Amino acid sequence: MRVVQRRVEGAPGRLPDGRALDRGDPHPDERNTVSKVWFITGASKGFGREWAEAALERGDRVAGTARNLDDVAGLVEQYGDAFLPLQLDVTDRAADIAAVQEAAETFGRLDVVVNNAGYGHFGMVEEISETEARGQLETNLFGALWVTQAALPIMREQGSGHIVQVSSIGGISAFPTVGIYHASKWALEGISQSLAQEVAGFGIHVTLVEPGGFSTDWSGPSASRSDELEEYAEVREAASKRPSAADPGDPKATRGAILKVVDAEQPPLRIFFGKAPLGIATKDYESRLATWNEWQSVSVEAHGG
Length: 305
Hints:
Layout: E1 37-40, H1 46-57, E2 61-66, H2 73-79, E3 83-87, H3 93-107, E4 112-115, E5 121-122, H4 130-158, E6 161-166, H5 179-199, E7 204-211, E8 224-225, H6 233-239, H7 254-263, E9 270-273, H8 277-294, H9 296-303
Parallel strand pairs: 1-2, 1-4, 2-3, 4-6, 5-8, 6-7, 7-9
Helix pairs in contact: 1-7, 3-4, 4-5
């Protein structure tokens, strides 16, 4: 962990270990008009990089994590002390806790925590190895959980905060070839919906951002892939022709969208990013409701009594 010996003075509050924390949180009616402090995992590229730049360009301060600090050196050069680079592998729980605390100590508070770090794994369910399955969940689910757990005591002490979980249309629907990725995002959706109910009374908001297909390297260099079984060649070929892949969204266009979400006095629990997700979700949920209704007599029978 890279240690930065910087502090921001402010009114006394407390970090989880008892050290002072700035409690200069604005009145709820003013929160969307003041500078914010962000903690963003995976800030070197993709959505994480776009959102870090969007926040910094308008005068917010950002602690951004990356596995390789050279990948965020440009943000340090351009924005100076407004950007705190932190080397982090989110699967390391102790390092997650240290990184979040360092950000809070450096900037005095945490307003927005974005769990963006993650990757896609491609493979039929039969093809996925134990190592591949555990690796996907360690990063996409447990990494987000550890960072969230580290941030919550700070936000509770402040009486405010916003946890933004980068999920996916794949967090509410499912397609062939990415089953273990879906498992990680469906789990993130469930834990985040529970979290939102648990922390609402502390003034903490939770939002699941559910993007469709975008022009990032999610399915390219950032992805991992299982060894392929020839028996699934036709399924794989059909999956490669999904319509959503033909019209990917522009990651830069999400800058304004994410700022609207974090500036909202009552941000949504869920929001789609992109054109395609709503149509996918509508078709999927209509199908589920139709099936549940069709089988409702059997469901009632199973109740007994």
